[in-house]
Amino acid sequence: MLSTYTYPSFAYRRPPELDATADAPVPRRPVVVVGAGPVGIAAAIELAQQGLPVLLLDDDDTVSIGSRGLCYAQRTLEILDRQGCGQALVDKGVTWNVGRTFLDTEEVFHFDLVAEAGHERPGMVNLQQYYLEEFLLQRAAELPGIELRWKHKVVGVSPDGAGARLQVETADGVFALDADWLVVADGARSPIRRLLGLEIEGQVFKDRFLIADVVMKADFPAERWFWFDPPFHRGQSVLLHREADNVWRIDFQLGWDADPEEEKNPERVIPRIRQMLGDGCEFELEWVSVYTFQCRRMTRFRHGRVLFAGDAAHQVSPFGARGANSGIQDVDNLGWKLKAVIDGVAPESLLDSYSDERVVAADENIRNSTRSTDFITPKSRVSKTFRNAVLGLARQHPFARALVNSGRLSVPTFLTGSALNTPDAEPFDGWMVPGAPLSDAPVVRNGQADWLLRQVGGGFTLLVFGDAAIELPATPVPLTVRRVKQPGSLVVAGELIDSEGLAARRCDARPGTVYLIRPDQHVAARWRRFDAAALQAALARALCLN
């Protein structure tokens, strides 16, 4: 039990499949998602919003125990906006953009996640995972295409060329269920991954950290603070984050030899916190856990008609906030592709690009997370000497501050190597290259202030800058046209005014420039002038129709 949160309990209902006659055919569902954590619920929402009926199974009857995932990055907030629950997360959570790193008590490095204004969402919002799951579940309940069943445990999976047969265990018995497509989001230990005999490979780091959630009223700012060798925890490191409800997350490095069970005892935890905060600070211990670093992934995330996402597919150490953020970006990538395949618009090979693109993202996250972990917990004398030298030099020399690594934070992956991209045929400046996630910008639509990303996504979108005439050819999927004009231009209903000129500047757009945006808001192609044949070819490439 927590003092700041009451866990909901969701009702189990006897599955109707158990009441079918013995000769009844095994029921079949188009999509089954396993795991009602953040990634699984987000997957169900994404697919339901695409118009697909989804059955979501979970072996528990409540949200996650403890705060667990905490930091949600700007890109994730933008995806959650499109799923209908981003604002709830921002309203409840703690917004922050600044992080500071200290050696002993001296600040040696700081960063600002939002280097430039003109984005609707902040760099990061902190919120306990159980709140995120609660908001996602509220949104899922609003969508008629989602059926969620609690206390339904998948105990068997038999894939075939047409999907997979599941054996589902409940309090009333076991029943069989066929799925045309199975999305696996059942967490880092993934029972389904084990049932299928699939491996997850990588590195487990020999260090342990204590997580302590503490309820207190403190005057620390809403920033990320990280200490190397602080006076209250010599020779180790400490991380401090603010959460909702006056809860603060404190992570203490323990070392590999620490006993995880012993370190979780309040008589061990409370003195550590008191030494950090001082005797005059009153606090209450809310939740405690001990974890180790892991950086691992599956070789492929697609196995026929079984698709893995989130921690079931890839795991990283928590410094950098890359776990839940990466998992939600997985389902953002997967949803539109699965819809296109089920509708017969695209071949099943389009789903290979889900694995290809998200493996690139996982490798990027693992690479950054591994570097952070090596810096925070050096495992050799040479590594520790280098780390300490960098920290010492960072006190006075700017070049060394760039080498300080207390956790490079989650950023979206630029899918520049994706086979779905159409390469530029003409020069462009800036970072909105094919494969990049589209940057947000303030716009005005129908006389009301709005944001560019709220006008793009869910389906393919053609951004047309200026008044250039276009005549859309026949396309394999619906295509929304969003025209973006400069302030002072004559507009008709639905057209966007680039109120601060940021959309054009970030896209290096001139009058006549056209961008093709994927349903997940990544750039698929761009041209200096509209060309119907080029658009058809780019759509075909983005859908693997070539």
Automatic annotation (TrEMBL):
Domain of life where this protein originates: Bacteria
InterPro entries per UniProt: FAD-bd, FAD/NAD-bd_sf, RIFMO-like
Flavoprotein recorded as keyword: yes
Cofactor(s) the protein requires to work: FAD
FAD-binding domain span: 30-368
Gene3D superfamilies: 3.30.70.2450, 3.40.30.120, FAD/NAD(P)-binding domain
Alphabetic keyword roster: FAD, Flavoprotein
Protein name: FAD-dependent oxidoreductase
